[in-house]
Amino acid sequence: MRLRHKNLLGIKDLTAEDINLILDTAESLKEVSTRDIKKVPTLRGRTVVTLFYEASTRTRTSFELAAKRLSADIISIATSISSVTKGETLKDTGKNIEAMNPDIIIIRHPHSGAPEILARSLRPAIVNAGDGAHEHPSQALLDLFTIREKKKRIAGLKVAIVGDITHSRVARSDIYALSKLGASVTLVGPATLIPVEIEKMGVKVSYRLEDVIPESDVIIMLRIQLERITQNLFPSIREYSRIFGLNSEKLKNAKKDLIVMHPGPINRGIELDPEVADGPHSVILEQVTNGIAVRMAVLYLLLGGKEESELTN
Amino acid sequence: MNLLIKNGRVIDPQNKIDDRLDILVINGKISKVSKNIVPQNETGIPSETLKEIKEIDVAGKIVCPGFIDMHTHLREPGREDEETIRSGTLAAAYGGFTSIACMPNTEPVNDNKAVTDFIISKAKREGSVNVFPVGSITKGLEGKQLSEIGDLAETGCVGFSDDGKSVQNSELLRRAMEYAKMFSLPIISHCEDETLAANGAMNEGFVSTELGIKGIPNIAEEIVVARDILISRMAGAHLHLTHLSTAGSLELVKWAKNLGYKVTSDAAIHHLILTDEALRTYDTNLKMKPPLRTQKDIDALISGLKSGLIDAIVSDHAPHLLAEKDVELNNAPFGIIGLETEVSLALSLVHKNLLDLKTVISSFTVNPAKILSLDKGSLSVGKDADITILDLEREYKVDAKNFKSLSKNSPFIGWNLKGRPVAAIVGGKIVYCLD
Description:
The complex is a heterodimer.
Chain A: H1 16-29, E1 47-52, H2 58-69, E2 73-78, H3 90-98, E3 104-109, H4 114-121, E4 125-131, H5 137-151, E5 158-162, H6 169-180, E6 184-188, E7 204-206, H7 209-212, E8 218-221, H8 227-230, H9 237-244, E9 259-261, H10 274-277, H11 284-302, H12 308-312
Parallel strand pairs in A: 1-2, 1-3, 3-4, 5-6, 5-8, 6-7, 8-9
Chain B: E1 3-12, E2 17-26, E3 29-34, H1 47-52, E4 54-57, E5 62-65, E6 67-72, H2 85-94, E7 97-102, H3 113-126, E8 130-133, H4 149-155, H5 170-181, E9 187-189, H6 194-197, E10 202-203, H7 206-211, E11 215-216, H8 218-235, E12 239-241, H9 247-258, E13 263-268, H10 295-307, E14 312-314, H11 322-325, H12 342-351, H13 357-364, H14 366-371, E15 387-397, E16 416-426, E17 429-433
Parallel strand pairs in B: 1-4, 1-5, 6-7, 7-8, 9-12, 10-11, 12-13, 13-14
Antiparallel strand pairs in B: 1-2, 2-3, 5-15, 15-16, 16-17
């Protein structure tokens, strides 16, 4: 039981088998977080470093808790307090961390390809916690985990991803993961935020959310960033919210068992009406809970995996 | 300075020569091109000179007019850590070139005759090949005020360009073209709409979509190509479009050439070889402007070379230090070196039967000479003995250690290539000889 990869750089590199292995492993690890003593000794003596070049609460906390619940030692490097602000290059920073012999480096970076640059030049396993608008594999894995838990399957589901596709690494990783496991994906958003030739990834594109809602089993809403207005990618929050925001009115035609997801942080009242965010379709907080189990599985499998019995002891 | 080059296959497109001939060089000039030259039988050669004639047998090799690369960056003055006139011209010689034109984006910018003078005199003292400076269109490349184009022309600039930037102000470009016309020199356009290209790091297409990297769309180039053609038509000026990269640009050039406008163009060698698929490695030595496009664009550029829509092949040799390039793709500067791999890569297209040898040689000789009004590019009797000798069969692996350029930012390091220049002769002087 081990992943056939040294690193987790993106979902694109994984097979359906790889993804299922991670999800199955996460399922057995999820229980650990419900115990009074939320810790197993599996990764005792292993060192995990998080290297975040972008602000993040959820993802970093989730990785940190995942490492701690597996008994790994974890050090977090935030760029504002490190030598990065003194102009050190990514490679040099990586080499310096490597010299301290960590087993895994978890990196988030504003530019696509940064984790791959580290993976090519460093010994430790590299986990991509989001690079530019490229990939965010652990988010896609926790999304799939949540969908599988709720729907008992992935294949054959109709999934809509709604919002700023162009700038979303979550969208790309979700597209790869969902497609590999046999779901069909429809992207919904303003034409200005749908990147060129994305249909070649095997997805459909729609500009009308209300047309897509009735057929959807899952809707993943993406966060819209206000700076896109100054880039003339849409004219106003009010108009965006009216056309692409999700509210109970639009959900009238939805399937009863539709689930609504969001990678967070939510812009309440913009892409997601509070009624929906806190409503019966929403599984947003379960995504957060599941994130820890999925990340535990990723760390565990990358560090070689052990027998199942040892894991649950 | 006195040579007898024997038994080569001489290809001189301007003089419509393709034959096994000898070339006699006396006092740095082409003295005779003919079969079986015996210098002793020639009239008017002093006996001391006869004794000095060095005989070179180039049987099995191709002998051409000296190659010209009309688009390079030598970085001197200002960035002598990246390249100097000495190192850049040596790289040119080792790449088989005998003449190069250098772009004005030095520090300070070549926007006045003092800088032009400096480049020309430094090149005379330290250069391995002929150097023809290109002056800037606008002062400081700022796109605001015309450079002293008359002074620059008189001092020796062979054309005008704000290369690296694209003049965004159409009125200013119109005036530049009208003004340059008085000196019979071309405006060399780097075509890029800055608003459409803003923050882009690669071609906009499926690959940029998958990688989540901001793309530079084809129309960023094509809109400016169309605009510049229209301005040149109005101004009646010679427009040269440099490093065209898209199929759409070629359609516009076709339109302009069919109507007889004074429009010429070139393509950079890397745009004939690589596509944006290569960027999946995030190798910053694949980042340049314009960006690597798609196979469809390569096909259009190659058929453009065949049909004459594209006149010249260039390197756009752009040296950058390893430290500048060894960063994330978004943060890396644009540009790659090319002088030392350009000819071999062009010959690889001949080996693949995509281009014929004469087209390649024309694109390095007679065509760029005409565009820049250089008294170069042929083996006519009486001309400077600038000669490039090729071995089409020679195979080698590109090794950065052998580069004469001070910079090593090439995506072709490690490539196995077939066909390479084996000698370059400038004014009768052998500046590069492989064997």
